[in-house]
Amino acid sequence: MKIFGSAWKKAFLVASVFAAIGVNNHAGASVDIAAADIAGSGKVVDQLDGALLNGDKFQFQAEVSRLMDIIINSLYKSKEIFLRELISNASDALDKLRFLALSDSSLLDVLKELEIRISFDKTAHTLTIKDTGVGMTKDDLVKNLGTVAKSGTANFVSAMQNGADANMIGQFGVGFYSVYLVADKVRVVSKNNDDDQYIWESSANASFTVSKDPRGNTLKRGTEITLFLKKDALEFQDQAKLKQLVSHYSEFINFPIYLHTSREETVEVDDDAGDEDDEEGEEEEGEVATSGDDDDDEELEAVEEDSAAPVEKKTEKKTVWEWQRVNEIKAIWTRPREEVEDAEYNHFFQAIHKDSTDPLTWIHFVAEGEIEFKSILYIPSKAPHDMYHKFDHKRADVKLYVRKVLISDQFEEFLPKYLNFIVGVVDSDDLPINVSRETLQENKILRVMRKKLVRKVLEMLRKLSESDDGHGDDDDDDDVVQVDEQAKDKAKADSSSYLTFWENYGKNVKIGIMDDPANKGKLLKLLRFKSTKSSDKYISLNHYVARMHPWQDTIYYIAGESVDAVEKSPFLETCKAKGVEVLYLVDPLDEYVMQHIPDFDGKKMQSITKEGLKFGDEDEKLIERKRKLYADQYDGVLSGLKKVYGNKVSKVTISKATAVDSPAVMVTSQWGHSANMERIIKAQTFANPAAQNPAAQKIMELNPRHPIVGKLRDLFATAPDATETHDLSWLLYDAALTNS
Length: 740
Description:
Low-confidence stretches: 1-45, 149-153, 168-173, 284-292, 471-488, 490-494
Number of domains: 4
Strand content: 15-25%
CATH superfamily of the largest domain: Histidine kinase-like ATPase, C-terminal domain
Radius of gyration: 39 Å
Mean pLDDT: 79
Helix content: 25-40%
Number of strands: 24
Oligomer: single chain
CATH class of the largest domain: Alpha Beta
Strand order of the largest sheet: 1-6-5-4-7-3-2-8-9
Largest sheet: 9 strands, mixed
Distance between the termini: 66 Å
């Protein structure tokens, strides 16, 4: 921790304001305090008014008065931030004490507990925050709470006028004054080891009073701040509301935070009247026993049995007060990764993501360089059902902390939208508390953090994919060595893990290839497809390349609606005959993605449904001579079919990569839409038929060795205008169009 960094100094303008607790109860212990005792605390507070009347009166610095006026009148929509500011500063005061105690352990002799306690009084309408931090002397109270750097106030006023987020109040060193959003009077009691206990009080006017506490040293050490709540801020004396706010903003503060809570329990009570009735009953039974005759023995026994039956005891409800810890979850990202168990990682994920399942994998690392931060990033084991609904508006669930204080859970710029499934935390000690998005952008900090986070996510995915693919590589850039040395990856070493990832988030990877050209090379290695040689299992592009024929220099693919549909395609006939593997692109995104992948590992990407299909095992000159020979022999068919089809096809030609069993296929030009792409475009929800581009012109390629084509050659030679010729021509067209 950089105790004396510039950001720390700014945060410490009022860092020591919140410290102290004189309660001797230990963490989480149930305290039998009646509600009347809590209500009585307000009376104790009011007894201090007399002492304050005789105290020293000071005038606020002009900038402070101006600042409080702005806060009270302008930031009313962000009231709850006051609690975050107070807890954050209380934590700073405790941190400072712990740091000083490293060189002087006697500082802790008077009070060893380092903690924060929050209580409320619904009768007096007060909210109290205590901590056992370093505390303040009288001079500290005057200087820290009565003055503020002029530049801080000026910058804050300027930022507010320019529409800055009110949540960023603390970055200007004026976070303490947010208490006036909810309180019309504030009382601060503080005890430093080097001074007596003093009281500071102000009602948000032009002055404040400081006096020695007539009660003596009740705190032992630290600070207690009491807010006298405004009428429109009484929600902050509700224990459920307070617990929710502490959990949201300060869940991972280093020190325990206790909230004074009440609950009802049922207890047994003495029933004196019932005891008297029982005694009278016993006397009556005795009289019956002595005065009755022998014939009444059975009745006597019945009476005795009734009197021996247990008497039901009375109960009543009683209110019990106790200190409940509200930040049980540990900030595990601050611990050495070797000390964190898998169960802790799983529990932490469930806590921050509000999920009951374990994550698929995670990465825990420390980044160093221009900006230092710690982070844990998770991949949930299952994508939400609405993962791709309003996809552009979904952002990763990555929370930003500064010294374990939540700053924002809506930093959209941390990760690109294609990584919106990532869950995790980022925590930096270097950033100022309440750092704003604007500040990050101005200092180029966000760009640096984003780059490192994206790199680590892709590294995590690479590690996970290697367990499935078996073709790993070390392609990390040299400039991330420092990060990598401190990184810890957790990837389950079975192939089903990456399969689970791909089935849930495969579309995200494809979107990343289109949206993130800088990382396209890494993302390409994450792609998975089924193929002619692996119709029941996904393979990677690396895997495809590893088992290519020695003569093969092209990666072939075919797009269609489903695996079953593409497996029936006549385009596969030649490829299967040659033993060439063909990737199946059956996701609607696949063809869009292929427009961004001209090649992979030096191998050209080629659709087998488009013209110009070639195989590297053939003599191109020989193939061309054969095509010309067939073209001469079938010239009448080629020209005749073109005349029959008209604009239905752009041309009719002899296929170079002739189908084995089909008479003809319809191909498209290299830059035209395939039949599958046309189907996808037409099916789009907001497609406008009137505004669509004209369908791509089809090219009919004939198989000259097929009997139907031979029959047509004879018909066009003898009866080109005959009905039979035209009927067979259209039958060929329909069959080719359907199969393509």
